[in-house]
Every structure is written in structure tokens, then in C-alpha cells.
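>> Question from a student workshop board

For tomorrow's exercise we were told to take the sequence and the ligand below, predict the bound structure, and bring the output to class. My setup keeps failing. Could a helper post the expected result so I can at least see what it should look like? The ligand is adenosine-5'-triphosphate.
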Amino acid sequence: MIEIENLSKTFTLHNQGGAVLRVIEAARLSVAPGECVALTGASGAGKSTLMRMIYGNYRAASGRILVGGVDVARAEPRAIIRLRRETLGYVSQFLRVVPRVPTLDVVAEPLRAVGVPVEDARERARGLLARLNIPERLWSLSPTTFSGGEQQRVNIARGFAHPYPALLLDEPTASLDTANREVVLRLIEEAKARGAAMIGIFHDEAARARVCDREIDVSRFAPARAA
Ligand SMILES: Nc1ncnc2c1ncn2[C@@H]1O[C@H](COP(=O)(O)OP(=O)(O)OP(=O)(O)O)[C@@H](O)[C@H]1O
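>> Workshop helper replied:
Here is what the output should look like for this input. Compare the format with yours to find the bug.
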């Protein structure tokens, strides 16, 4: 479902005399449906960079990133938008709040975007918000004024609303309490059971050990060792 071949990344620092930073070289990675792979490695090894490249936020210097058959490294913006709508989800700790949209619709929106009828989408959203312990009195309000933890849980509900075939998880359990952490781990397990291919960064080692099938140490793709 996710195939990375010979992928390299450099950053050119235009405000620092055009210095070129080589971060990733000749990275290879393959994730099958129903599999969850953890990215590990020391701080600065390139975990976030790799995730951002898979999501199409950072451009690759060379190589291929196939997600459901689409090469993200070469795809047109329009194709990437479509991939993100239909195939590739991203669950991070942070909600980018859309002003004035009620929480229920923030969570239902990814389903509406793929044509799910409004009541069905809201029903799924209600189920997720209830599981993630967002009080019902908040569902009709915009999450703009919610606490950090509430916004994080709204974001997780939104990330799991549509059954994406591929999912990127960026510290999805960070700073959650025990009960909500458990809910998120179950959501990940359910996504695996329905065949989602997932790549995640988890500093929570117990969470990683429980839901991930394999670990890939990103430092193995560091340029110094790639030769
Ligand atoms: N936008 C950018 N411009 C320039 N350099 C960058 C950029 N993003 C990342 N880097 C560099 O790439 C390297 C890898 O960073 P990255 O954030 O991917 O590491 P990480 O493994 O996710 O680290 P952490 O665990 O600390 O989050 C670092 O040396 C960083 O300085």
C-alpha cells in the first residue's frame, strides 16, 4: 500500500548562503495493508521529514513514494489533494481549527468530502466523539476555544472518521490521559483489522510495542551511512 524506493531529501538553506543539508538518502520502506510500522531514531534523524514527504508536504530530491499507486514525489497538487481526501489520512496531535464550524461537522467533514450523506457522516462523528470522551454539550460548538487535550481528541476523531486505506500517525497518543490513550490505541487496532497500512512516530514506547508490527530506524537512511 505504501512503497518508498530510493528516496532522498536535501534542504537548501537559502537564508544561510544556500547551504545544502542532506537528511535522507536511498530510503526504502514498504508497508502492507493491515500493517503498522513505527519510525524510530534519535532526534533529528529525519522521522518527521520522512512523514512530511509521504504526505506530500516536502518535495523529494529523488526517488519514489507510492501510496495506493500514486507517486507522491511526482504527483501534481491536484492528485495529492485527491489522495489526501480518499486514500491517505494524517493524524497528528494538533488540530488546525476551522473557524465557526461546529465540532460535529469538523469530525464529519472527511466523510462528507468523499460523498457520505450528512446524517451518516454525523452519526459516525457522534460515535467517535463519544468514544473520545468529548462532552456532548460541546459538539455543536466550534473547537476553537477547546482545551489543548479536547482539540487533540477532536483531531483524532476527525483523523479516524473516514476509513483511509493508508494512515500516517504523528504522536497520536502524546499527552493523552490513560483512558483516552486506550481509545486511540483501539482505533489504531481497528484500522489495522480493516486493512489500513500505517506509518507512525510514537515516543510512547508501550504504545509502539502494542500496535506496531515493525520498527524502522530512520538513522539507517542518514547520508553518511548510505554509501
Ligand atoms: N524545513 C526544514 N528546513 C531545513 N532543515 C530541516 C527542515 N526540516 C527538517 N530539517 C532538518 O532535517 C533533519 C531531520 O529533522 P526531523 O524533524 O525530520 O527529525 P526527527 O527525527 O523528526 O526529530 P525529532 O524526533 O526531534 O522530532 C534535522 O537536522 C533538521 O534540522
